[in-house]
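User: I'm writing a tutorial on reading structure tokens. Could you give me a worked example: one chain, its sequence, then its tokens, then a sentence or two explaining what the tokens reveal?
Assistant: Sure. Here is the example chain.
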Amino acid sequence: MSKSLYHLLQVAEVIEETHDSKSIVFAPSAQPQLFAYKPGQFLTLRIAVQGADRPVARCYSLASAPGVDDALKVTIKRVRGGLGSNWICDNLRAGDTLEVLPPAGVFCPASLDVDFLLFAGGSGITPVMSILKACLHQGNGRVFLFYANRDERSVIFSEELRALACAYPQRLSVMHWLESVQGLPTVEQLASVCRQHLGAHAFVCGPALFMDAVEQTLLDLNVERKRIHVERFVSLSSDPGVLADVP
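And here are its predicted structure tokens:
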């Protein structure tokens, strides 16, 4: 007999962020202590996808920040052929319930009172946004965000980032990079950005090649490895929320 570690959360709101991404805002849990989290962590959702043999488990980063946002929020971008992301974007509505594991993950700053160099590519902005908001609202460091996207309509949280930049003009700088206009960033261009923030703590999330390039650039500039944090998701081969053969 199996035992489930999941908890039911109700969907309070579904926000259309871009043409291919949506945010899911959850209603408060009846056990809020189970869903206390750190900036940069993720939730694992168990989704009963039509046509699949069994429910699928998928990890999605929290875009909300503890102590800043009232509700848990994850942001999901469609993946071509992705069972979980496409089902959520096509079917999930306010009032629905989902099975959710408590927050997990180590892509988290040890302190918010330091300077941050943040690199995000596409939907990699999700955990980076959580860290950015936590730092601005609860820390005292400066934040530089390099945010790469395919084109302008793909920029998630564009209005929220603009509002934060206006609210914290001395502490937040945002550099948007559009592949449709500027092409892919070169190592030389990434190095030019990094050289201006060598004392900061770097957090990187996005496509694998993008993360590899940023990480290697930072290492080549002799940034200490302990100040470089890269979020690499691995596809789940099993459901972490179900324990089999429990008597």
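What the tokens reveal: The helical segments are 83-91, 125-138, 158-167, 179-182, 187-195, 208-220. The chain is about 25% helix and 30% strand.
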